[in-house]
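Form 7-S
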Amino acid sequence: MRSHFRSAITLLLFTAAFPLSAKPLLLDEVLGTVRQNYPPLLAAWLQQDIANGRVRQAQGAFDAIASSNLRMNPLNYYDGVSGGFFLEKPLEAGGIDIYSGYRLSSGFLADYDRKDRTADGGEAVLGLRMPLLRNREFDSRRAGIGRAAVERELADPFVLRQYLTFHRSARISYFSWLAAGKRLAVAENLLDIALKRDGALKEQVKLGAIARITQVDNQRLVVSREIGVLNARRSFEATSIELSLFHRDSKSGDPITPERARLPDEFPTPVMPDSVQLINDRGIAAFRRPENREIDLLITRGGIDRRLARNNLKPNLDLALEFNQALGNGRPSDIDPTEISGLLRFSVPIGNNEAKGRLSAIDAELKRLDEQKKFTRDRILADANDAFSALQATDEALQRAATNVALAVELENAENDRFLQGASDLLALQIREQATFDAKVLEIDAKLARLRAMADYQAAIASDAPSDLLGKTK
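Output:
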């Protein structure tokens, strides 16, 4: 009884340490780790955080500013002291700046220093500066916020472009790994045929049924096919390493080199679109692809720059008003309890070449973007059409490759029967075996080509695009 118990424990430990069968690695698992742990994609997502930071940075142009000053004249004839504290706040509406504060002075100050002299209790100050022409409806501060907001939205098509590119690359890497595994299996099978035949030929040589040169020829074939297996194994290892860049540990994010035991039994079979589906997919691609939205946002940013340039064509006409209220007693005789002062200032650049040149350049850039947008729409449709055409061609090629394999296998089996009957020689059989091997490799390549074409088609129509990166297009 105890021995049976030990055997059961040993079996459990062995099973835990060496699983009987590894779970096949499927494409969805690879794409899942790309979305969660692929460093270049994670870096692309950070572009949104950078853009958000720049929006906040631009909003700083309208932050309130607290300031204070203290003026002393210890060795002057006028040895008084004056100082104050002020709070200034720019407003987005109308380009107005408002400020308020408090001033206080003591000692002997000159009569002409009106802004320094106050009553004993100091002076309350309230004022504003208002543009009447230039900078009233728009200015560089509001333009900075608008541009930063556009840059934040531009982060989405940037991330989406990386997202689609990395998904396509991950698909192709996975399919290449799968194809390399299948080529390795075909090469090993070809070698196994020669190895098994070598044992049979050895017995026939001992019996004197065939000449030894026939066995030597087969041994040469074994060595040649071993070289083929080594090359196929190296190719598989290379694709496994490449796939590890996309296939990563869900917790640590470290690359995982997939083992051969995780190879699926068969290639995935893609759902082939027809011409009706292509029409629908082209319409979806025009919405999902990042290029159109990116150009729309660049046009919006150009509109902001154009509005600022038109603002800069206007002359400066600024109004400043200040309200002063004396506090306490001891008010100088030339200072009223309540005072209001105003200033109107006008200036205009002669020629205004800077603003005119900027406006001309912006108008040309907007026209260029409009032409680029027209071509981009054509390019998206052409990409979808080309990917669909390639997909149809690779599907037809795969059908021919499958027929080629069936015929090669039939010929090989027939030649093998003739060889066993003594009606054929080893060279003819080798040729048939090589033809079957080549046909199977061609079929594997055809399957890979079809899957690559499907990856290109999915990238062309942006089928992987997540909804939170699509935004709104015009």
